[in-house]
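About this split. The held-out portion is used to measure sequence recovery: a designer receives only the structure tokens and must propose an amino acid at every position. Recovery is the fraction of positions where the proposal matches the reference. Here is one held-out target exactly as it appears in the evaluation file.
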């Protein structure tokens, strides 16, 4: 007997039970439920062939072809699934729409002694929940500041002190600027970024404040969901004003040990925005490995860009905070004291 669960109940059980995604590797690699394990019923080529057969010859012919592909794999499906939860022998299974793929897989596991729960509506229903969740009213506070202000480290320190945070750059594997992908893991597609964001948001108490870093709507190639972005734009912003010389030191520390060629490529990518002279000065400094000079000249561009974006916000929502030292712990303490007065 196949046990079906609504998406809420499915995700509730997913906190303690393994999730098996039986979609093709291509579907899974693009985006999936956080923590799900891919045990594909069909590989990418097999899925394409079954789909073509369905269009050309109908459902019965497609099912027969699918059985031909799946038959030799049945024992391995069971072995892989049993390894995921040898104690309680319970697993969660889903496909795209909650149809034949997950139903067949769950039936197989049930006959082999496991208890399998399937997701009603499949991954599609999960995605609907993900997108709907971003419209949930939050109490965001935005941590702002020019490039090199140490906002990510301050955010992490806020978390260590018991505050709720969402590290958007960490979820997107990108620091936001043209240099932002350097030293990071490959970026997820926006769909997977949204999934990761959803799972970060789920355990948070939406009646309490949540800190997020000030971002453009796109972080590299990932886009912040519009519903969340609109809440961020309307939220109070703590503007960390750290002296330029302190920011230069921080940025040199962050980037000096990274692939030199990638720094050159990133600088050349924004040459039109920097202008000819600034680009030449920056590239000449890179040749000399004078990273402080590179940061100095490029920061002028980034500072102007950030202040221009800040000028579009409601001035009454901006709360400047002058910081003399690059000390995330002290800054976090001041931010918490300030936030308590809101």
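Reference sequence for scoring:
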């Amino acid at each position: 007997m196949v046990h079906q669960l609504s998406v809420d109940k499915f995700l509730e059980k997913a906190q303690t039970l393994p999730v098996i995604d039986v979609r093709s590797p291509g579907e899974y690699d693009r985006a999936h439920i956080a923590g799900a394990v891919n045990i594909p019923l069909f590989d990418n080529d097999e899925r394409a062939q079954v789909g073509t057969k369905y269009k050309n010859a109908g459902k019965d012919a497609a099912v027969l072809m699918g059985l031909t592909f799946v038959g030799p794999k049945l024992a391995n499906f069971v072995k892989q699934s049993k390894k995921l939860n040898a104690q309680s022998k319970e697993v969660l299974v889903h496909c795209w729409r909650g149809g034949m793929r997950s139903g067949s897989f769950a039936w197989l596991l049930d006959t082999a002694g496991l208890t399998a729960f399937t997701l009603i509506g499949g991954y599609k229903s999960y995605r609907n929940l993900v997108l709907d969740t971003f419209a949930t009213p939050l109490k965001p506070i935005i941590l702002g500041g020019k490039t090199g202000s140490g906002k990510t480290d301050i955010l992490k320190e806020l978390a260590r002190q018991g505050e709720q945070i969402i590290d958007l750059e960490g979820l997107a594997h990108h620091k936001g600027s043209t240099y932002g992908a350097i030293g990071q893991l490959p970026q997820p597609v926006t769909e997977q970024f949204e999934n990761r964001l959803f799972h970060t948001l789920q355990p948070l108490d939406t009646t309490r404040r949540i800190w997020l870093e000030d971002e453009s709507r796109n972080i590299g190639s990932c886009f912040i969901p519009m519903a969340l972005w609109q809440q961020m734009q309307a939220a109070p912003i703590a503007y960390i004003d750290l002296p330029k010389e302190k920011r230069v030191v921080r940025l040199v520390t962050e980037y000096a040990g990274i692939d030199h060629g990638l720094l050159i490529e990133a600088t050349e990518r924004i040459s039109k925005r920097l202008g000819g002279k600034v680009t030449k000065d920056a590239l000449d400094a890179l040749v000399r490995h004078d990273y402080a000079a590179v940061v100095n000249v490029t920061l002028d561009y980034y500072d102007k860009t950030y202040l221009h974006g800040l000028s579009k916000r409601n001035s009454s929502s901006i709360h400047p905070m002058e910081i003399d030292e690059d000390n995330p712990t002290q800054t976090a303490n001041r931010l918490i004291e300030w936030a308590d007065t809101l």
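Annotator remark: Residues 134-339 form a domain with the Rossmann fold fold (CATH 3.40.50).
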